[in-house]
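[09:14] KT: can someone run the structure on this one? pasting the chain below
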Amino acid sequence: MNFPYGGRLHAMPQEGAPALQARNLRVTYPGAERSALEDVSLAVEHGEKVALIGPNGAGKSTLIKAVAGLIAPDSGQILVYGNRVGACHHRTAYVPQRGEVRWNFPVTVEQAVMMGRYAHLGWLKRPGAKDRAAVSRALEAMNLLPLSGQQVGNLSGGQQQRVMLARALAQESDLLLLDEPLNNVDVRTQALIFDILDQLAIEGKTIIVSTHDLGTLEAEFRRAIFLDRAVVADGPVQQVINPDLLARAYGFQPHICPPEPEAFEVEFQR
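[09:31] RB: done, structure tokens below
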């Protein structure tokens, strides 16, 4: 069953389907000698908050963009709530890396956050009271109300990061895809982001966060997916970030500390 919203037909979630399912996904960029993703299969259930980790060039951003519908896979299948990508745009919110955004575009903070409502509105319909209320809640959640009238290009890097997150919140989506949201933000902003993500997960939202910050994983996530073009490991954080697995994935030997001097002395005396 479909329903009209924002001038287009959006598919309803399929009963019992996971929030995200990828099957045998393969993605290759034009002119590349090898694929960015190869035979990636995974499933993420409703309400999960998952960390996507891996070395540079592992395909984390590629996977997120493919799920967001920005990159077409060579082969394989992506299902969002049981439907093909694009069948329900309003259910998926994408937060790109800050460096991929044109911050010199002449819009205010409030106008940038309102863009999150266009998945519901379409590009021709004017925002109504419901849309303005959603934007106000998002601005308040990200501590941006005092900056709502400022140009986004005049903000600091951390403030710009909060604008992108507020835009995703205003969309009121069920699946949030965040690509390196913790880069170049201070400790207070990082704590604010995690508090918001925790609340969204409690509300049943599904969250996938790509990150290089392994120090926060055990405290903030229960599940991690280690990606290096293919899924290297997928499971509880403590299992995925064990030293041996990290060493194999990053291509280095784990450091083995020599025994304490007392151990040599005891062995010699024997």
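[09:33] KT: thanks! Residues 1-8, 262-270 have pLDDT under 50 and may be disordered.
[09:34] RB: yep, looked fine to me
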